[in-house]
Design brief:
Length: 355
């Protein structure tokens, strides 16, 4: 069953990676200095308080967010996980349509993804199809650090600062986000010392094994990429099929505003989504603990009214858990970069949308 996503860039990324989603690249939180750990600019000593470390981490993250939004750059992006590797050419700069990010797949079927402030487009030349996802993405995609609420993050993670290794030929500083309990993954992030741009992230399990990694293998900063013709590589677009999803942001339902949050996950956004391939729209709610994201989909089916909830099925690919079930007239799916038990717990405690 195809699931349209609240975040256009997120939906496109799923297809780029040949999997459900890419809810990842996470990090931040409260900071506990490692003995002997050194940042690029100063030693992290026992004299530095948790609050001071937290403030430094917050500045690093904000600088990375500003750099991702404002800098022109081009480079090669690599995503590695247990099932394989995906790479793409990434360009960020100005075009006649405004500031834009262009992603050209280097592996598998040809694809160009264009992210604008008003929409996200996926050009699929092998299928002669253009897919359009209206609206800006709520999700903050690489290399933007996905920090949604720093204060909330500090409830669930410890932070460690250290000198990072070289990434894409550039010296880095590292933040380690260490979960306070097994309900979350750990995340390590590397930031370019010169520009502040985030260059690499790793998602780790409770044993420290890397589940997924996102990084630049090469990067050119400061030179504006040639982005005048976003559709120039494609011939005869008039003959292509244009597919546009319908995504309507909604005010947060009152029931969710009062929702305390299972295991510290609180509501972030809500939407009604309808894809051309689907006869019915579905409701999507997004939850976050400040870093990790979990998306929950509800599809109403009158055939399920009066039936007991179905047994759940679950799967984990890389760092992304997927839970499928039904309850009180709805098909339910929870999808997020969290352990399976965390996604199950969130799904079990959520209220249902009101018809």
């Amino acid at each position: 069953m195809t699931k349209a996503l609240l975040f256009p860039a997120f939906a496109v990324a799923c297809e780029e990676l040949g999997r459900w989603v890419l809810l990842r690249f996470v990090f931040l939180s409260l900071v506990i200095a490692q003995a002997g750990a050194v940042s690029a600019s100063e030693s992290v000593t026992s004299a530095e308080t948790v609050q001071q470390l937290q403030a430094r981490a917050k500045v690093m993250v904000q600088r990375a967010a500003d750099s991702a939004s404002q800098l022109d750059f081009s480079g090669t992006y690599v995503h590695q996980h247990a099932k394989g590797l995906y790479s793409a050419k990434v360009m960020r700069g100005m075009s006649p349509e405004g500031r834009v990010t262009v992603i050209d797949a280097l592996d598998g079927p040809a694809r160009r993804t264009v992210r604008l402030s008003s929409e996200v487009r996926a050009y699929l030349p092998d299928q002669k199809q253009l897919r359009v996802y209206p609206g800006a993405s709520v999700r903050l995609d690489f290399p933007h650090p996905p920090v949604y609420d720093f204060a909330r993050v500090t409830e669930h993670y410890q932070i460690r600062l250290a000198m990072g290794k070289r990434v894409a030929g550039r010296m880095t500083d590292r933040i380690e986000f260490v979960p306070r309990n097994p309900s979350r993954w750990g995340v390590h992030c590397w930031f370019d010392q010169a520009s502040g741009l985030m260059l690499k992230t790793q998602t780790l399990d409770a044993n420290g094994a890397v589940l997924e990694e996102h990084s630049f293998s090469d990067l050119n900063l400061g030179s504006s990429p040639q982005l005048a013709g976003l559709e120039a590589p494609f011939k005869d677009l008039r003959s292509w099929r244009r597919v546009k999803a319908s995504i309507h942001r909604e005010p947060m339902p009152q029931m969710l505003k009062a929702y305390a949050g299972s295991m510290g996950f609180h509501p972030l956004a809500a939407a009604k989504v309808k894809e051309p391939s689907s006869s019915l729209p579905h409701t999507q709610w997004l939850f976050t603990d400040g870093i990790a994201l979990v998306s929950v989909f509800f599809i109403y089916d009158p055939k399920l009214n009066g039936q007991a909830g179905s047994a759940e099925s679950s799967d984990l690919k890389g760092a992304t858990a997927m839970i499928i079930g039904s309850k009180s007239g709805y098909h339910l799916t929870a999808l997020g970069e969290v352990p399976i038990d965390t996604a199950k717990s969130l799904l079990a405690t959520l209220p249902l949308p009101q018809q």
